[in-house]
Amino acid sequence: MQFSDFSLDKRLLQSLEHMGFTAPTEIQAQAMPVALAGKDLMASSKTGSGKTLAFLLPALQRMIRTKALSKKDPRALILLPTRELANQVYGQLRLLVANTQFKSISILGGENFNDQAKALARDPHFVVATPGRLADHLTHNHLYLNGLELLVLDEADRMLDLGFAEQLKAIHKAADHKRRQTLMFSATLDHQEINDIAAELLNSPEHVAIGAAN
Ligand code: ADP
Ligand code: MG
Protein backbone atom coordinates (compact mmCIF):
# COMPACT_ATOMS: atom_id res chain seq x y z
CA MET A 1 0.00 0.00 0.00
CA GLN A 2 1.10 3.57 -0.78
CA PHE A 3 -0.06 6.98 0.46
CA SER A 4 -1.13 7.65 -3.13
CA ASP A 5 -3.80 4.92 -2.72
CA PHE A 6 -5.70 7.23 -0.35
CA SER A 7 -7.76 10.04 -1.79
CA LEU A 8 -5.36 12.71 -0.53
CA ASP A 9 -4.92 16.14 -2.06
CA LYS A 10 -1.85 16.28 -4.29
CA ARG A 11 -0.26 18.94 -2.09
CA LEU A 12 -0.33 16.50 0.82
CA LEU A 13 1.18 13.76 -1.34
CA GLN A 14 3.92 16.19 -2.39
CA SER A 15 4.66 17.06 1.25
CA LEU A 16 4.87 13.36 2.12
CA GLU A 17 7.30 12.85 -0.74
CA HIS A 18 9.42 15.74 0.59
CA MET A 19 9.36 14.15 4.04
CA GLY A 20 10.54 10.90 2.43
CA PHE A 21 7.42 8.84 3.26
CA THR A 22 5.87 6.63 0.61
CA ALA A 23 4.10 3.77 2.39
CA PRO A 24 1.79 4.17 5.40
CA THR A 25 2.56 2.37 8.65
CA GLU A 26 0.00 -0.15 9.92
CA ILE A 27 -1.84 2.31 12.18
CA GLN A 28 -1.92 4.86 9.35
CA ALA A 29 -3.26 2.25 6.91
CA GLN A 30 -6.07 1.28 9.28
CA ALA A 31 -6.94 4.57 10.96
CA MET A 32 -6.81 6.87 7.92
CA PRO A 33 -9.75 5.33 6.00
CA VAL A 34 -11.97 5.70 9.09
CA ALA A 35 -10.86 9.28 9.73
CA LEU A 36 -11.07 10.20 6.02
CA ALA A 37 -14.65 8.88 5.95
CA GLY A 38 -15.50 11.50 8.59
CA LYS A 39 -16.15 8.99 11.38
CA ASP A 40 -15.16 9.31 15.00
CA LEU A 41 -12.25 7.07 15.93
CA MET A 42 -10.60 5.52 18.97
CA ALA A 43 -7.18 4.17 18.04
CA SER A 44 -4.22 2.64 19.81
CA SER A 45 -0.78 1.45 18.77
CA LYS A 46 2.64 1.54 20.31
CA THR A 47 4.93 4.57 20.53
CA GLY A 48 6.83 5.25 17.33
CA SER A 49 4.26 3.58 15.07
CA GLY A 50 3.28 6.78 13.23
CA LYS A 51 0.10 7.95 14.95
CA THR A 52 0.78 11.63 14.22
CA LEU A 53 0.35 11.37 10.46
CA ALA A 54 -2.62 9.03 11.02
CA PHE A 55 -4.55 12.08 12.27
CA LEU A 56 -2.74 15.00 10.61
CA LEU A 57 -3.29 13.75 7.06
CA PRO A 58 -7.06 13.18 7.47
CA ALA A 59 -7.29 16.49 9.37
CA LEU A 60 -5.69 18.43 6.52
CA GLN A 61 -7.62 16.52 3.89
CA ARG A 62 -10.88 17.39 5.67
CA MET A 63 -9.94 21.07 5.88
CA ILE A 64 -9.03 21.15 2.19
CA ARG A 65 -12.20 19.35 1.14
CA THR A 66 -14.71 21.22 3.30
CA LYS A 67 -13.39 24.73 2.72
CA ALA A 68 -16.77 26.37 3.19
CA LEU A 69 -18.33 24.21 5.88
CA SER A 70 -17.41 26.41 8.80
CA LYS A 71 -16.32 30.01 8.54
CA LYS A 72 -15.28 30.27 12.15
CA ASP A 73 -11.71 29.57 13.18
CA PRO A 74 -10.12 27.56 14.56
CA ARG A 75 -11.45 24.68 12.51
CA ALA A 76 -9.17 21.99 13.92
CA LEU A 77 -7.82 21.59 17.45
CA ILE A 78 -5.20 19.00 18.40
CA LEU A 79 -4.64 18.42 22.11
CA LEU A 80 -1.60 16.75 23.67
CA PRO A 81 -0.58 16.21 27.29
CA THR A 82 2.83 17.94 27.28
CA ARG A 83 4.73 20.77 25.61
CA GLU A 84 7.30 18.35 24.21
CA LEU A 85 4.71 16.14 22.53
CA ALA A 86 2.77 19.14 21.27
CA ASN A 87 5.95 20.62 19.75
CA GLN A 88 6.67 17.37 17.91
CA VAL A 89 3.18 17.28 16.42
CA TYR A 90 3.29 21.00 15.63
CA GLY A 91 6.58 20.48 13.78
CA GLN A 92 5.02 17.82 11.55
CA LEU A 93 1.92 19.97 11.01
CA ARG A 94 4.10 22.92 9.92
CA LEU A 95 5.75 20.74 7.26
CA LEU A 96 2.36 19.64 5.94
CA VAL A 97 0.64 23.04 5.95
CA ALA A 98 3.61 24.75 4.28
CA ASN A 99 2.14 23.66 0.96
CA THR A 100 -1.42 24.91 1.75
CA GLN A 101 -3.20 28.15 2.61
CA PHE A 102 -3.80 27.15 6.24
CA LYS A 103 -2.45 29.00 9.25
CA SER A 104 -1.43 27.04 12.34
CA ILE A 105 -0.29 28.03 15.82
CA SER A 106 0.66 26.25 19.03
CA ILE A 107 -0.74 27.21 22.44
CA LEU A 108 1.40 25.63 25.13
CA GLY A 109 1.57 25.95 28.88
CA GLY A 110 4.56 27.96 30.14
CA GLU A 111 4.58 30.44 27.24
CA ASN A 112 3.44 34.08 27.22
CA PHE A 113 -0.34 34.26 27.72
CA ASN A 114 -0.85 37.67 26.07
CA ASP A 115 1.19 36.74 23.01
CA GLN A 116 -0.97 33.64 22.69
CA ALA A 117 -4.16 35.73 22.96
CA LYS A 118 -2.90 37.91 20.08
CA ALA A 119 -2.06 34.86 17.98
CA LEU A 120 -5.54 33.45 18.62
CA ALA A 121 -7.12 36.76 17.56
CA ARG A 122 -5.53 36.32 14.12
CA ASP A 123 -7.90 33.39 13.46
CA PRO A 124 -5.60 30.42 12.85
CA HIS A 125 -7.20 27.43 11.14
CA PHE A 126 -5.25 24.87 13.17
CA VAL A 127 -4.38 25.02 16.85
CA VAL A 128 -2.07 22.52 18.55
CA ALA A 129 -2.35 22.90 22.33
CA THR A 130 -2.00 21.51 25.81
CA PRO A 131 -5.43 21.30 27.48
CA GLY A 132 -4.82 23.44 30.56
CA ARG A 133 -3.60 26.49 28.68
CA LEU A 134 -6.23 26.14 25.95
CA ALA A 135 -8.98 25.95 28.60
CA ASP A 136 -7.59 29.14 30.21
CA HIS A 137 -7.92 31.00 26.91
CA LEU A 138 -11.44 29.66 26.51
CA THR A 139 -12.35 31.05 29.94
CA HIS A 140 -10.98 34.44 28.85
CA ASN A 141 -12.95 34.37 25.57
CA HIS A 142 -9.71 34.50 23.57
CA LEU A 143 -11.13 31.91 21.20
CA TYR A 144 -14.47 30.38 20.32
CA LEU A 145 -14.78 26.75 19.41
CA ASN A 146 -18.27 26.72 17.87
CA GLY A 147 -16.76 26.51 14.35
CA LEU A 148 -14.52 23.60 15.27
CA GLU A 149 -14.90 20.76 12.76
CA LEU A 150 -12.21 18.46 14.06
CA LEU A 151 -10.98 17.68 17.58
CA VAL A 152 -8.00 15.36 18.08
CA LEU A 153 -7.10 13.98 21.49
CA ASP A 154 -3.59 12.55 21.17
CA GLU A 155 -2.10 10.52 24.05
CA ALA A 156 -5.54 10.65 25.67
CA ASP A 157 -4.53 8.26 28.45
CA ARG A 158 -1.69 10.56 29.49
CA MET A 159 -3.94 13.61 29.40
CA LEU A 160 -6.26 11.82 31.82
CA ASP A 161 -3.31 10.69 33.99
CA LEU A 162 -2.25 14.35 34.22
CA GLY A 163 -5.71 15.32 35.47
CA PHE A 164 -7.03 17.09 32.35
CA ALA A 165 -10.47 15.40 32.28
CA GLU A 166 -12.33 18.58 33.32
CA GLN A 167 -10.52 20.72 30.74
CA LEU A 168 -11.26 18.16 28.02
CA LYS A 169 -14.95 18.24 28.93
CA ALA A 170 -15.03 22.05 28.94
CA ILE A 171 -13.37 22.14 25.50
CA HIS A 172 -15.84 19.52 24.23
CA LYS A 173 -18.83 21.53 25.50
CA ALA A 174 -17.57 24.71 23.81
CA ALA A 175 -16.93 22.84 20.54
CA ASP A 176 -20.56 22.17 19.69
CA HIS A 177 -20.43 22.28 15.86
CA LYS A 178 -22.96 19.69 14.74
CA ARG A 179 -20.59 18.21 12.13
CA ARG A 180 -17.64 17.96 14.51
CA GLN A 181 -15.45 14.89 14.10
CA THR A 182 -13.43 13.62 17.06
CA LEU A 183 -10.35 11.39 16.87
CA MET A 184 -8.84 9.86 20.00
CA PHE A 185 -5.43 8.21 20.19
CA SER A 186 -4.18 6.39 23.26
CA ALA A 187 -1.57 3.81 24.21
CA THR A 188 -4.43 1.73 25.58
CA LEU A 189 -8.18 1.71 25.02
CA ASP A 190 -9.18 -0.62 27.83
CA HIS A 191 -9.11 1.72 30.82
CA GLN A 192 -12.40 2.77 32.40
CA GLU A 193 -11.45 6.46 32.34
CA ILE A 194 -10.66 6.33 28.61
CA ASN A 195 -14.01 4.75 27.90
CA ASP A 196 -15.85 7.26 30.10
CA ILE A 197 -14.33 10.25 28.33
CA ALA A 198 -14.88 8.60 24.93
CA ALA A 199 -18.55 8.01 25.79
CA GLU A 200 -18.92 11.71 26.52
CA LEU A 201 -16.83 13.22 23.71
CA LEU A 202 -17.09 10.78 20.79
CA ASN A 203 -20.03 9.87 18.60
CA SER A 204 -20.29 6.11 17.82
CA PRO A 205 -16.51 5.77 17.33
CA GLU A 206 -14.87 3.01 15.34
CA HIS A 207 -12.04 1.18 17.12
CA VAL A 208 -8.63 0.46 15.65
CA ALA A 209 -6.05 -1.29 17.85
CA ILE A 210 -2.69 -2.39 16.45
CA GLY A 211 -0.52 -4.90 18.33
CA ALA A 212 0.07 -4.96 22.06
CA ALA A 213 -0.58 -1.82 24.07
CA ASN A 214 2.49 -0.20 25.61
P1 ADP B 1 3.68 7.72 17.54
O1 ADP B 1 2.82 8.95 17.68
O2 ADP B 1 2.88 6.49 17.21
O3 ADP B 1 4.57 7.51 18.72
P2 ADP B 1 5.04 9.27 15.49
O4 ADP B 1 3.87 9.77 14.74
O5 ADP B 1 5.71 10.21 16.42
O6 ADP B 1 4.65 7.93 16.29
O7 ADP B 1 6.06 8.69 14.41
C1 ADP B 1 7.28 8.07 14.79
C2 ADP B 1 8.33 8.26 13.69
O8 ADP B 1 7.96 7.58 12.50
C3 ADP B 1 8.53 9.71 13.31
O9 ADP B 1 9.89 9.97 13.22
C4 ADP B 1 7.87 9.81 11.96
O10 ADP B 1 8.45 10.81 11.17
C5 ADP B 1 8.08 8.43 11.37
N1 ADP B 1 7.03 8.04 10.42
C6 ADP B 1 5.70 8.28 10.52
N2 ADP B 1 5.02 7.78 9.48
C7 ADP B 1 5.93 7.18 8.68
C8 ADP B 1 5.84 6.46 7.42
N3 ADP B 1 4.67 6.26 6.83
N4 ADP B 1 6.98 5.97 6.89
C9 ADP B 1 8.16 6.16 7.52
N5 ADP B 1 8.32 6.83 8.69
C10 ADP B 1 7.23 7.33 9.28
MG1 MG C 1 2.36 10.24 19.18
TrEMBL record:
Give all residue intervals belonging to the DEAD-box RNA helicase Q domain: 1-29
The record places the motif (Q motif) at: 1-29
Residues forming the Helicase ATP-binding domain are 32-207
- Can you tell me which residues the record assigns to a coiled coil? none
Write out the similarity annotation.
Belongs to the DEAD box helicase family.
Tell me what this protein is called: RNA helicase
Q: Could you tell me which species this protein originates from?
A: Shewanella gelidii
